[in-house]
Each structure stands twice: as structure tokens, then as C-alpha cells.
Amino acid sequence: MGSRPRFQMVVDNQFVDSLSGRWFATDNPFSGLPWADVAAGSPDDVDRAVTSAHRAFRGPDWAEMTASDRGVLLNRLADLVAAHAEELAVAEVRDNGKLLAEMRGQMAYMPRWYRYYGGLADKVEGAVLPSDKKKMVSLTRLEPLGVVAAIVPWNSPLLLAAWKLAPALAAGNTVVVKPSEFTSTSISVFMHLVAKAGFPPGVVNVVTGSGPEVGSALVNHPLVRAVAFTGGEAAGVKIAESAARRIVPVTLELGGKSANIIFPDADITRAVNGVISGIFAASGQTCVAGSRLLVHSAIAEEVVSKVVELARLARLGDPMLAETQVGPVTTKQQLEKILAHIAAAKSAGARCILGGSRASSLGCGNGWFVEPTIFTDVTRHMRLAREEVFGPVLAVMEFSDEQQAISIANDTEYGLAAGVWTRDLNQAHRVAQAVEAGSVWINTYRTSAPMAPFGGYKRSGLGREGGAAAILQFLQAKSIWIDLGEEGPPPFVMKL
Ligand code: NAD
Predict the structure, then answer these.
(1) 253 carries an active-site annotation
(2) How many A from CA of 140 to the centre of ligand 1?
(3) 3-class SS string, the chain
(4) Is the CB of 215 under 6 A from ligand 1?
(5) Beta carbon of 212 within 6 Å of any ligand 1 atom
(6) Structural domains of the chain, with CATH
(7) pTM, two decimal places
């Protein structure tokens, strides 16, 4: 421990140690070494943070703030994020090892989520309802839920927090953020900006620590009124079970086994770039990773050889350097999980035509690198075709017609995203409609925007983040009735 930097939790806009005074180390995926210490939370720290958020939710500074003023704060936060984008990007890379180039882009773009929901804050309208009763006025109000728990994973900590914070705050809730125990430091840099933007104390708090201890205590805290979660399926199921027991709404953004489907008339160069960016960017650690390449048999040889050619040349190395194209994976556990998936695919009979091992080339140092890996001869029943690897491992499968492509694409429990590559407009639309996925990209891959709903079909999730409707997940409707008649309600029977 010694001289390593320390990152605290945030309660009431104050940076605080954990109540136990304990710390845990966080590692740099490129060096493979601990570089900082993070406050190790416990259920007591969760209680302190949630109590603060609850107090803020009820307190006049936030509860009486107009929706327009909440929008002003969110826009101010967006300005601050934009001004500090470089600092935030560097903070992300240190902990999650993704390319600085990718994190720079993400941090420069992230303010748009705060602006979008900042603008939406005072456009959430109730309604005056047409009444079927004489002299009765009925109207609705959309009211915030209370304290929202925002639980995020390690692959894009600040962006995925923004997808929850922006709509939840615009709606008037308060939030407790729980970052991943592997990437807890960047939120600390961000929280300086939250205080500077002028959010009242307690409106956004942060607890750090493990999922099973701190995350679980947060989801189960009696004052938490909604849970917004991004992460793996196993944790998602546990969280949904807890939310069901407590009768609180939950949004789940989970994993995927997304297909990139290439038809014979596609622009092959463009499609190959899409395949590479779908699976090797961010070392495959994106929920929408295009981890299955579905390619028509007529062009399979050409496409696969071009993908291999490009992937073979990918420069692995220090994620902070501009020339690096593939960085390390974020955690040692993830490295081991990916290597186990590769071993299982080999023994199941898939043919490894590129990579397949931990990368140890010059430039990788002791970092947690996996070689860009490509398997052919993958069949539908192999684990590689069905389970999320969350690493730079591509499974190639061939099809002979559109129906077969759709059938293979949908033959998974997941349904997060898909790519369709064709110049045939009708085919593009047919396939986009038939694929069971929350996002479908045609002749492109892996893009998003605040105004577009994002989420999963099937086991990829529940609810949507992004888009105007996402704010409704953080609001509840109240019907108000006003009886203008002279008589009032009849005793003993319902007034209908
Ligand atoms: P994870 O599920 O292990 O952890 C995610 C978060 O949940 C962490 O903060 C963790 O501490 C917390 N957590 C774990 N167990 C918990 C519990 N029992 N109760 C409460 N909180 C708990 O996921 P990860 O390994 O950090 O991230 C990778 C996963 O996230 C992948 O499956 C990936 O597909 C998914 N992901 C999904 C999206 C999306 O938008 N759909 C985006 C990014 C990542």
C-alpha cells in the first residue's frame, strides 16, 4: 500500500473514508500491478450513503428545485465533463486498460447524455384526462421514485453511470452509484465535477466495494426505490430477485452474443472493418461485441482471410499510446476466463485460425493481454456460439441463405445487438426486423446516441437506457381527482 494514491467514497458531496477504515488495491491492467487503493465499503457505508440520498430527496434544496433548474445543473455538469474529458479518459484507462483513443472519444461524447436529459427535465408532462364523470376533474403527475441505486461494470464505468444518472436526476431522484470493484477510481474524478456543478449534498453519492457485499447491501436497502444495473447475467439475476422481493423496479443491461451477418453483396472492406471493430476494439470487452461472424458460404473464404489479415496486424501494447490498437483485458480473472473459453472451444472441435493464447509480445509487458483470436468450424451447440466470452475471440459460422442466417442469429439466449451487411435495402430491413436484438446496425457497427433506446431482448436485459422514454423508468404516475360537484361522494358505494 504505502504511497499509492487513495480514492474515497462520496457522501453529501464530501470525500470520506469507509467507516471501517479498510482499503483494497486496484490494479493497472497494463502493468498487472496495483496502482491505487480504494475505500473498502461495507453495508454500514451503504446505509450512510443511502440515508444521505434519502435525506436529499426529501430536503428542500432538491425536492423544491424546479425541473428547469435540474436541467440547468445537468447542463452545467455536461460543460464540466467536456472541460475535463482528458482527465476523465486517463482515469478510465488506468483502471480498465481500454485504449486512451477510445476513452477520449467516449468522454468527449458523454456530455451529450447529460445535455439530452437536462433538456428533457422540464418536458416531462402529466395530463388533464378527459373525464367520464360530470363535474370531475382528473389529472396526472409524474413523480420521482426516490433513491436510485446505479450499479455499473468495469468496461465503461463513467459512460454507463451517465446512462443512469442523467435520466434519474432529470426526473428528480437522488442516486447512489456503486462502481465495479475493478474500476472504482474514475468516478472519484467525476464526483468533483458533480459538486462543482452545484448539485446539493446527497443528490449523488458513491459507495465502493465488492458486488456481493456492497452492491447487494445497496440493492436490498429499504430506502432504495429503484435499481439500474449494467453488468453480467449472474449478478443481474440476483439483483432482479432482490428487487422482486422488495417490489422495486429494476432495469438490467446484461451481456450478449451478438451476430455480424454478412451477405454476398456486401461491401466487403466495410464489413471486415465492422467485424474487427465489433470484436477486437476494447479487446472484445463490450456488451455489444459482435462475437459471432455469420458469413454467407459464397464469400466466407474471402471475408475470413481479410479479417485474419487485419487482426494479425493489430498492434497490442500500452493503451495510453496513440499507436496501440488492442489493449489488455481489464482484470486477471477475465484473462483467465477468456483463456478457459478458448481452451473449451479447442477441445469442442472448433478450429483456431488466429491467436488462441495469452499475448506476451514486446510491448505487452506483464499486462493481461489476449491475442486477437478467431475460430472457424464453430457449430451452434458449442459454448463459443452460445456464451458471452467478453474478450477478443471471434466465432465464425457460415450460412447459405437469409432464413438460415436469421435462424442462427436468433439461436441464442441473448438479444443485445446485431450487424447486417448488405446493399439490398429490402434484405437489410427484413433481417433487421427478424433478428431478436435491441439494437441492429445496418452497414455499420457499435454506435449509440442519447436519443436512441438501448437494451436487450431475451436474457440481454430488461428496460431501456437512452431515448426520451427512458426517463419514465425513473418516474411514477399519480392520478389526482377533484370533485367539483355539490353532492360529493355517495356513502357506502363507489362513485363511478
Ligand atoms: P458484474 O456483473 O460482475 O459486475 C457489475 C457490477 O455489479 C459491479 O459493480 C459489481 O460489483 C456489481 N455486483 C456484482 N454482484 C452483485 C450483487 N450480487 N449485487 C449487487 N451488485 C453486484 O459485471 P462485470 O464483469 O463488471 O461486467 C461485465 C458484464 O457487463 C458483461 O456481461 C457485459 O456484457 C455486461 N455489460 C452490459 C452492458 C449493457 O449495456 N448491456 C454494458 C457493459 C457491460
Answers:
(1) yes
(2) 36
(3) CCCCCEECEEECCEEECCCCCCEEEEEECCCCEEEEEEECCCHHHHHHHHHHHHHHHHCHHHHCCCHHHHHHHHHHHHHHHHHCHHHHHHHHHHHHCCCHHHHHHHHHHCHHHHHHHHHHHHHCCCCEECCCCCCEEEEEEEEECCEEEEECCCCCHHHHHHHHHHHHHHCCCEEEEECCCCCCCHHHHHHHHHHHHCCCCCCEEECCCCHHHHHHHHHCCCCEEEEEEECCHHHHHHHHHHHHHHCCCEEEECCCCCEEEECCCCCHHHHHHHHHHHHCHHHHCCCCCCCEEEEEHHHHHHHHHHHHHHHHCCCECCCCCCCCCECCCCCHHHHHHHHHHHHHHHHCCCEEEECCCECCCCCCCCCCCECCEEEECCCCCCHHHHCCCCCCEEEEEEECCHHHHHHHHHCCCCCCEEEEECCCHHHHHHHHHHCCCCEEEECCCCCCCCCCCECCCHHHEECCECCHHHHHHHEEEEEEEEECCCCCCCCCCCCC
(4) yes
(5) yes
(6) 6-254+460-479 (3.40.605.10), 259-442 (3.40.309.10)
(7) 0.96
